[in-house]
Design goal:
The structure holds two protein chains of two kinds. Chain A is an all-alpha fold. Chain A is about 80% helix and about 0% strand. The relative contact order of chain A is 0.19. Chain B is of the alpha/beta class. Chain B has three domains: about 240 residues, Rossmann fold (3-Layer(aba) Sandwich), CATH 3.40.50.300; about 160 residues, 3-Layer(aba) Sandwich (Rossmann fold), CATH 3.40.50.300; about 70 residues, no CATH class. Helix content of chain B is about 35%, strand content about 25%. The chains are: A mainly alpha, B alpha/beta.
Chain lengths: ~375, ~500
Amino acid sequence: MSDNQRPKLNTTALRAYIMLAVLAVIWIYFHWATPGNTFLTPRNLSNLMTQMSVTGVIAVGMLMLIVSANIDLSAGSVLGFAGGIAAFLMTTHDVGLPLSVLAAIAVGVAIGLFHGVLTAYFNIPAFIVTLGGLLAWRGAVKWLLGGNTIPVADDTFKAIGNANLPVTAGWLLAAGGIAFVVIGAIRRSRSDLNDGLGGSNLVKELARAVVPVIGIVAFISVMNAWQGVPVPVLILLIVASIGGFIMNSTVFGRHLYAIGGNPDAARLSGINNRRNILKVYAILGAFIGVASLIFTARVGSAAPDAGTLKELDAIAACVIGGASLMGGRGTIFGACLGALVMASLDNGMSLLNVRDFLQDIIKGSILVAAVGLDMMGKKQA
Amino acid sequence: MPLLEMRNIVKEFPGVRALDGVSFDLDVGEFHAIVGENGAGKSTLMKVLSGVYPYGSFDGEIAVDGSPRRFRSIRDSETAGIAIIFQELSLVKELTVGENIFLGREPSHFGVVNWGKMYQNASRLLRELGLPLDPKAMAGTLGIGQQQLVEIAKALSQEARILVLDEPTAALTESEVETLFNILEGLKRRGVGLIYISHKLDEVFRMSDRITVLRDGRTVGTHLPSEINKDGIIAEMVGREVGDVFPAFSHELGSAALSVKGLSAFDVDDPARPVIDNISFDVKSGEVVGIAGLMGAGRTEVLTALFGAWPGRCKAEISIEGRPVSIRSPADAIRLGIGFVTEDRKRYGLILEQTIADNMTLAALRNVSGRFVTDRHREYSAVSETMAKLKIKANSAKTVAGTLSGGNQQKVVLGKWLLTRPRVLFLDEPTRGIDVGAKQEIYNEIHELAKAGMAIVLVSSELPEVLGLSDRVLVLHAGRISAEFARGDAVPEAVMAAATGNL
C-alpha cells in the first residue's frame, strides 16, 4: 500500500518542489548578479513580497476561476475601476474610509456577478465577456476620473498599502501558521491510519511538516528584520488562506474542480454548474476589489490606467503554478508561487537595470517555456 | 504467403509487459477476428501495427507481403496499405463527407483544391460501397453508424489492403450492422484483409474465417469457427470455464417505486417534434425493468428526461413511492433517490484526471463528507467500503480514474451512484466495452441491488443483456412503447420485431 502514496506525491508535491527549486535558482542568480548582492536582503525581500501582493491576491481568485474552466481578462480594468470608485468616494464625496473600502469590494463583486451571469446563464464564452469587460471597464475608469489622477490624502487608507505589522504581531502570525501546520500533520496521520490507506504515520507527517515550519520562521524573521510584515503581504496571506481553504476543504471547491474537469459529468452528478460559476466570479470580484485597495493605497492615488495588464500577470502566475486553462487542474499554492516567480523577475531585472522592453520579452518567454516544460513532463509520464 | 505477418511481438510499458510474444497473420481476403478481455493486448497490438508505437519501441517483426517493414509513424503504415478505424471516430464534424474522405490528400493543383474532382471521386467511392450518402453532407449531421461507414470509405480511398476495425458495431443499430457486414463481404471479395476486434461473439462467429484469442498479452489460440464454439472461446478469453452468463434469478417485487405517466420530451432544436411521445410505465421496488430498442428509439432520452437532465422541453407526471414529485434538475432527482449510471463513462460519467475517491463522492459529497467543509476521512471510509463491495481493482482510493481499465471505470461510476443511496437506479449501457469478467460482476451486482429492494431501469444495446437481467422488458420504437414483455415471454425475435415496428 505504501506504493500507492507515491504517485500522488509525484504529481502535486513534485511540481511544487520543482517550482521551489526554480525559484531558488532565480533568487540565487539575482543575488549573485546584482551589484553589492542586494537581492537577498531583508529590505529587498520585503519589497518583493509587497510588489507581488496585488498580483497574488488577483491570482488566488483567478485560479479558482481557471480551475472551473473560465477566465477573466478584465481583472486589471475592474481593479482600476474599483480603486477609482474608492478614491472618488473618499476625495470628491467625503464618504468615510470604511464605506469607501466596502464600496470598492462591492463594485468588484457586482461586476463579477454581471460577468458570471453573462457567462453562465447567457452562454457567452468567458473569454468574450471579459474581453468586452477589459475594454468597457477601462473606459468606465477614464470616464469616472475624467482622465485625471485623483490623489488620496487619507493616511489610514494609505496604510493598507504601506504600513507594516509590529514585530510581535509578526511572531504571533508565525505561531499561528506553525500551529496550523502541526495540527494538520497530526490530524492527517490519524485519519490516514484509520482509513487503512497506510503509508503515513505521525513521525512521517511531522517530518513532512518540518519544511513548511522552517519556511514560516524564515519568512517572518526576514520580514521582521526589515520593518515587519507589510500589510499588503498580510492581506495576501489572508486571501490565499481563504482561497486554499475553499479549494481544498469545501464542497464548493471540489465542485469547481469537477466542473472544470468534466462539465457534463458534474452536471449529471447534480452539481449546479451555472450557480457555482456565478459564485466563483463573485469571489474573484471581491478579491479584485481588495487588490484595488492595496494598489490605490500603495500608489497614493487612483489613475485612469491603474491596473493595466494586471489580469495577464495573474493568469501567468496561475499557469506558471501548474494550472490548466482547460480547467480542472491547479492549486492556490502554485498560483502564489507563480506570482512570486513573476514578481521576482520584475524585481531582479529592475535591480539589474535590464531595459524595459527586454524585461517584457524575458517574462513572456519564461511563461511560454514554463508551460512547454510542463507539457513535456506530462508526455513522458 | 500471408498478406500480413506479425511475429513474436513484445511491447513493454514501465512495469507491465503488455504484449508477450504475440504472433498473428492475415491472408488476402480474410476476415480474421481478434477477441480477448480488455487489457488482453488487442489495442496495443493494433497500435504496434499502425505505427502509433514506432519501430524500435517494441520487439518482434512485421512483414507485409513477406517483406519486413519498419513503421516509424502512422503515415508509414498507411503507405503500406494499413488502415485502422478506431472506436473513437476521428471525422471532422464541421467538414463534409467528401472533405473528410480526402482530408490531407485533397485533389489539388498548386494548392488550390479541385472541388469538382473531389466530390466526383467521393460519390464514386460511396456508390461502390453501396452507401446512400451525400458527399456534401456535413459529417457531424450523420448518425454514428454512417460516420463509421464514411471512415471505411476514407480508408479505402487510401487503397488500404489491410483494414483494422476496433469494436465497429458498438454504437450501430441492427440495420447499420447489416450494411457494414455487406460492405465487409464486398471488401473480402476484393482481397482486402480484415482484422476485426470485437466483444460480440455472435458477430465474430458469423463473419470470421479465423478467430485469434489473446489473453494477458499472449496468443492463446487461433481457431476456425467451425472447430470451436462460443463457450470454448470465452473459456480461452478468461482462462476459466464460465457458467451460464445470465443465471436464473428471482426478485421479490414490492410496490411501485417509480411511476411515470405521459412522459413526453421534445427535440431541442425543433420544440414541436417529440423525441419521447407520451409514454407511461412504472417500476416496482426490487424489480429490474429493461428498455430495449434500436439506437435513436429514445431509450437514453427517457432516462435523461426523468432525471431532469433533458436540455429541451419535457413533461410528465412522476411519482416516487406514490408521492407526486417534480424533477427539474439532476439535483432534484438525486434528492428524491434516483441514481443515473450514464452511458459513455468517459464523457458523462467520470472526471478522468481525478482520483477514484473524488469521482465516487461527486454526486453524494454533502452526504458522505461534510455539508460545506469536506471530511476526507469520512469520504475515504465510504469509498473504500464501496470499492471492496464492487471488487474494484486499484491500488487505492487515490488512484487516478483515467488509469483504470474500462470495467473498473464502470464500477467507479456505479459506485458513485450507490453512494447516493438511491431507491431507483437508472443504468444506461452499464457494460459497454468492458471485459467478460467485469460484466459478470456487474450483472451480479444488479441482482444484489434488486434483492435489496432497489428499483432498476436498465437500458442496453445488447439484447441478451436486457433479456437476461430483466423481470420485464419495455420495447421502444420511435419514442413510444411498442410492446411490453414479461420475463418468460421476451424472446429475442419478438423483441426485435417490436423494436423495428414490425408487430
